[in-house]
Design brief:
This protein is mostly helical. The chain is 84% helix and 0% strand. It has helices at residues 2-24, 28-48, 52-69, 75-92, 97-115, 119-140, 143-163. It is globular, with a radius of gyration of 15 Å.
Length: 169
């Protein structure tokens, strides 16, 4: 069990590095590309930490991110992925209420990815996503990801306020 916890946290650390890089990207496609890599490490961490709703949600998120990166995420595919995420996530949930958080995070982020081209709105969606994942990560002991969720939530919030367009007097 201890070996799986260490392995899960190693993959969690690699995931954290990728999501940190994604936040620094100005271009939506660059942001999504780094999130594709992030999700791959998340999936490996989910397997090691036995968190199956997160595993299924991240697997659907991987498909979503690849389609978004290639510009092929249509309205119909978005709905199919949302339904798949919810159904598969609920079916695989072995963590009770905590297991619902990855589902909520993924569904909300998918909606934002499809409905906006605005980087600021994507950043807000990312903050919400990170908060939900933080709670989940603490519960499943994915500490590198939990720490990164905290730092990135704060960093992304700062970027949102730095980049907002305020009228000058």
């Amino acid at each position: 069990m201890q070996t799986y916890l260490i392995l899960g946290n190693l993959f969690s650390l690699l995931s954290a590095i990728c999501i940190a890089i994604s936040v620094l990207k100005k271009n939506k496609n660059d942001l999504i590309w780094w999130q594709v890599i992030d999700v791959i490490f998340c999936i490996l961490s989910n397997i090691a930490l036995y968190t199956y709703s997160a595993l299924t949600t991240n697997s659907v998120s991987l498909i979503r991110n690849i389609l978004a990166y290639k510009g092929k995420l249509t309205k119909n595919l978005t709905w199919i992925l949302l339904i798949l995420c919810i159904v598969a996530g609920l079916y695989a949930n072995n963590r009770g209420i905590i297991g619902l958080l990855p589902i909520i995070a993924s569904v909300s982020y998918t909606i934002f990815m499809y409905t906006t081209k605005n980087e600021q709105q994507m950043r807000w969606a990312l903050v919400l996503n990170l908060i939900l994942w933080f709670i989940h990560d603490i519960y499943v002991q994915a500490y590198p990801s939990a720490l990164t969720d905290t730092v990135l939530s704060m960093w992304t919030s700062i970027q949102i306020f730095k980049n907002r367009k305020c009228p000058r007097p």
